[in-house]
């Protein structure tokens, strides 16, 4: 069996999150989802399509769930079923505040613990939530500190991609000029220098801990891992669901080939919205702002099939939690970028 592994994750951001990014939603959207509100199409339409496709490739994925959405009874049932089928449920905070990193330390801790409190009852008896991803890919030392204190095994918030960073800064700046401020924030440029492979951070989440670990950090064997989203080495082109849908076909094949041939670990991040059809309910308002929402479901499915087929030739799929267990037990607890056997 291949020693190379690929973890597929889905950020379960609802359509309301995208309305916030594009400045189309009110800023007071924190707090529980109102009672009696309809289930979100990301849960009822997109997720079942992804899970059906995953079954074909024997993929057990990691779902990053927003706590308040998991309180909705229909969403909760869908998530419980996914967990029973072997998928991992991880924490994407309670409110999915794009400004999470600007809260007080107690506010940050509460966003994390409240998310887990809602998600854990959906897991089989005794299982814990062990993974976290910040909203909007922004993480700070304060968030990392909270995750350590709450016993997390890994964080996967870092997306070390200059192209994405530039695009996000441009959109946020443009919306501010048009007096339609986005609720998203640009975040620290340190992310651009973060490693493109799993590591155990020091106090700064963007850097591996020095080999002589600073005082105050737990032993490496017990400490948290950072699992950045995979980018193409060198020019750091993104390899996430949006790129699968937006790259010209030749480029998608070249990037996928480049990654599968060189990377022992792929952290492949998707969003629920990647599997929405332009005619699905709730998408109309967002379509002018989200080019990926104008791609037909048929085309999307075809592209994802091609990518999964290509990855399956060289990599074994596993959840992010299982990937961390693998890193923690190999090579005496350090992840090493092995040369890939031909
Ligand atoms: Zn998100």
| DSSP strand content | 5-15%
* Distinct ligands, ions and cofactors found in the model: zinc ion
User: CATH homologous superfamily name?
Assistant: Glycoside hydrolase/deacetylase
Name the CATH architecture.
Answer: Alpha-Beta Barrel
The number of strands is 8
End-to-end Cα distance: 14 Å
Quaternary structure type: single chain
Helix content: 25-40%
Based on CA atoms alone, the radius of gyration comes out at: 19 Å
Q: Report the total helices.
A: 11
Task: Write down the overall mean pLDDT.
Answer: 89
- The tally of structural domains comes to 1
* Biggest pleated sheet: 5 strands, parallel
Strand and helix order: EHHEHHEHEHEHEHHEHEH
CATH topology tier name: TIM Barrel
Shape descriptor reads globular
Unreliable spans are 337-342
CATH class: Alpha Beta
Question: Which secondary-structure class do the elements indicate?
Answer: alpha/beta
């Amino acid at each position: 069996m291949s020693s190379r592994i690929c973890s597929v994750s889905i950020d379960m951001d609802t359509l309301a999150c995208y309305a916030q990014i594009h400045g189309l939603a009110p800023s007071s959207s924190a707090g529980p989802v109102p009672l009696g509100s309809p289930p979100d199409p990301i849960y009822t339409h997109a997720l079942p399509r992804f899970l059906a496709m995953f079954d074909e490739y024997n993929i057990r994925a990691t779902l990053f769930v927003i706590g308040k959405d998991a309180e909705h009874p229909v969403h909760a049932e869908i998530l419980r079923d996914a967990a029973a089928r072997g998928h991992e449920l991880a924490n994407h905070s309670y409110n999915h505040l794009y400004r999470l990193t600007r809260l007080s330390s107690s506010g940050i801790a509460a966003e994390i613990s409240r998310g887990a409190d809602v998600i854990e009852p959906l897991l089989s008896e005794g299982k814990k939530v062990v993974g976290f991803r910040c909203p909007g890919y922004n993480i700070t030392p304060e968030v990392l500190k909270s995750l350590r204190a709450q016993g997390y095994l890994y964080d996967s918030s870092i997306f070390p991609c200059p192209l994405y960073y530039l695009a996000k800064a441009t959109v946020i700046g443009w919306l501010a000029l048009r007096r339609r401020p986005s609720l998203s924030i640009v975040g620290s440029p340190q992310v651009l220098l973060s490693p493109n492979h799993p590591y155990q951070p020091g106090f700064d989440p963007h850097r591996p801990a020095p080999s002589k670990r600073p005082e105050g950090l737990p032993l490496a064997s017990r400490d948290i891992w950072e699992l950045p989203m995979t980018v193409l080495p060198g020019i750091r082109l993104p390899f996430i669901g949006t790129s699968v849908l937006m790259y010209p076909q030749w480029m998608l094949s070249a990037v996928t080939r480049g990654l599968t041939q060189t990377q022992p670990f792929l952290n492949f991040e998707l969003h629920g919205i990647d599997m929405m059809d332009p005619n699905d309910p709730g998408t109309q308002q967002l379509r002018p702002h989200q080019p990926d929402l104008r791609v037909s479901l048929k085309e999307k499915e075809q592209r994802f099939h091609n990518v999964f087929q290509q990855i399956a030739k060289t990599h074994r799929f596993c959840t992010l939690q299982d990937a961390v267990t693998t890193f923690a037990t190999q090579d005496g607890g350090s992840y090493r970028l092995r040369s890939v056997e031909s």
